[in-house]
Write a structure and sequence with these properties.
Blueprint lengths: L13 H19 L18 H20 L11 H19 L5 H21 L10 H18 L5 E5 L2 E5 L6 E4 L2 H8 L5 H5 L2 E2 L28
Parallel strand pairs: 1-3
Antiparallel strand pairs: 1-2, 3-4
Helix pairs in contact: 1-3, 1-4, 2-3, 2-4, 4-5
Length: 233
């Protein structure tokens, strides 16, 4: 798997299905292994959210897509605990996974990106390291790189070469003269509004990163004022 092929072709969309399914299963496994009262733990990457709020969000998004592809009216997320939420997510996922198996499209990839990003949020909340690799990584990273590229272009900034242990890609338009590098999860979280300015600066830059920092705020993502857990290695 690689973080760096946003335009890579995946036949029949199967990787998107596998990616989303793996996020759902990994989320259930992480919660099962969590401490007592795991649902009440705060999620640093999503201020004001608890772990239960995060899972409820994933169920709500799945319900919206389920309603769209089946023509049904989405119901309210269960008011119960994590077990009820996970059961509802599994119940809704069949038609959603069929949708993900369709032709590649940005809305399908955004669904995968959102779910995978929140799996990383959950891992941070539980003190669990990010995975070495994940089937969602190519699709989710492609969405982030495309959005970041548009942000670079919108700010009139030169392109960047983005490097991780999984490879390299160009963000922006043109031939990059500057490189930013780091562990895949630190680069990913920087592109997804989970790393502060200081943490973004701590990535391995081949030039002073100051002029590129505004581009890390784009779409739904905002650079947090304070650093969150995690360090560049």
């Amino acid at each position: 798997m690689t973080i760096v092929e946003p335009h890579r072709s995946h036949p029949s969309g199967v990787p998107a299905v596998a990616a989303y399914r793996q996020v759902r299963r990994a989320t259930a496994q992480l919660l099962a292994q969590g401490p007592p009262g795991v649902g009440a733990l705060p999620v640093a990457h999503c201020p004001d959210w608890t772990v239960r709020d995060l899972v409820a969000h994933l169920v709500e998004i799945c319900a919206r897509v389920h309603g769209r592809v089946t023509g049904s009216v989405p119901g309210a997320a269960p008011d119960g605990g994590l077990a009820e939420l996970l059961a509802e997510w599994e119940r809704l996922s069949g038609p959603v996974e069929e949708f993900l198996a369709g032709p590649e499209s940005m809305d399908r990839h955004i669904l995968v990106m959102d779910a995978f990003t929140h799996e990383l949020d959950l891992r941070q909340a539980l003190g669990v390291a990010p995975p070495v690799d994940h089937p969602a990584l190519p699709v989710a990273s492609g969405v982030l790189l495309k959005g970041f590229s548009a942000s670079l272009d919108g700010h009139g900034l030169p392109p960047l070469a983005v490097q991780t242990e999984h490879g390299s890609a160009v963000a922006g338009t043109g031939d990059p003269a500057v490189t930013v590098a780091g562990p895949w999860h630190e680069v990913y979280l920087s592109l997804a509004g989970r790393r502060s300015t200081a943490q973004i600066r701590s990535l391995r830059w081949s030039a002073d990163p100051g002029r590129w920092l505004p581009a890390f705020t784009w779409g739904p993502f905002r650079v947090p004022e304070s650093s969150v857990a995690g360090s560049v290695r």
